[in-house]
Amino acid sequence: AKKRGNALSEAQIRFFVREVASDRASDAQIAAFCMATLLRGMTDEECFILTDAMAKSGELCRRPSAEGVFADKHSTGGVGDKTTLIVGPIVAACGVPVAKMSGRGLGFTGGTLDKLESISGFRIDLSAEEFFETVKKTGISVIGQTGNLAPADKLLYALRDVTATVDSIPLIAASVMSKKLAAGSDKIVLDVTTGSGAFMKNTRDAKKLAKHMVAIGNHAGKETVAILTGMEEPLGFAIGNNMEVKEAIEVLKGDGPEDVKEVSVALAGMMLSLGLENVSHSQGKRMAKKALSSGQAFEKFKEMVQAQGGDIRYVEHPEFFERDAFEGEVLAAEDGFLSGMDTEKIGVAAGLLGAGRETKDSVIDMSAGIYLKKKIGDTVKKGEPIAICYAGTKEKLNRGMAMFESSIRYSKEAPRIPKLIVDIIR
Length: 426
Ligand code: URA
Prior knowledge:
Layout: H1 10-21, H2 27-40, H3 44-55, E1 71-75, H4 83-93, E2 98-101, H5 112-116, H6 128-138, E3 140-143, H7 151-162, H8 169-182, E4 187-194, H9 203-219, E5 223-230, E6 238-239, H10 241-252, H11 258-275, H12 281-293, H13 296-307, H14 312-316, E7 326-331, E8 336-341, H15 343-355, E9 369-372, E10 379-380, E11 385-391, H16 394-405, E12 408-411, E13 421-425
Parallel strand pairs: 1-4, 2-3, 4-5
Antiparallel strand pairs: 5-13, 6-9, 7-11, 8-10, 8-12, 9-11
Helix pairs in contact: 1-3, 1-7, 3-8, 4-10, 4-11, 4-13, 8-9, 11-12, 15-16
Uracil binds next to helix 8.
């Protein structure tokens, strides 16, 4: 029916999700459903039902009711996007509990779980009880879709990652929102990315996706706000799992790249304004900045790592993180300005270096990735380094560097600097 462009009935959607969650649907059938949906789309009604069925495909987190207002955030994916590692601790340090279920890398984008697992010992597979116990004790926990939480999304997500079926508005909306509804938080802030490094390449589509997700959240009785953020270039300088954790630690210590700080503060400020009474977004942002400069957010991150079994020495001494055996400088091809990046290609380049998965079962190289030395608007001289690539083998290094090189554009005149906070959808 979907292949022919028909709307599916509620019974058909619920049947499909049941078959997926109970492992009766084959990978081929699930992938066919995803491709048909990507090509044919869904009505709002179908998308509501798909989200609800996926959220209820496993156990819903039943958290203790008397613990106050819980806040959650989710990004629709980006390159170099390490904001969860910063936003979660800020918000928890300011007194709003954060119970977050994150994902792995998807397509050309990185995933918070993969990043957290680059900290030796860090457990993302807490049970629902351990999850809420950790939130109660430390104010924050970030876990994967383990146990039996939205298992239908877990299966669809892994197959979409390797079948080029990620960039579908109904599939993204249902994937993100099913996890958010299943995880049991009261307030949801969505970071909907837009630009060459996002699944939504233009603001119009990003707004459409944001409106869909905000409607699904509010329909389910959870106050939901989306911030549209620009992804015309990677966020920060680091792309790759342990390199991104190191950069997040710099920001948590009050340093680090300005763009990472700006987006993190905007998201955290919004979570605080939803989670606390009589706090505006501007006041929330001020609180967030203070949590960073005072070191409280960094302390909260350490508490979370410790509570989830991570080796705290990596956080205190980021030089503990390993570097890959092979590294290579990418040199500027022209004089002038770095005027643009095909950021999706940069995500693919990081994957080729070893930071992402080629198949569902690929093992990630935590130390592989790219460190940018120049961003859009910077002046460049032909032959000077614009980035350093890291990989575990020479072959991976060469493939990744070639892909990265092909993503860069130059100009003689100063380019327009892309906006970071594009819009807010309530
Ligand atoms: N993040 C998700 O959790 N799901 C998607 O489909 C895209 C981004």
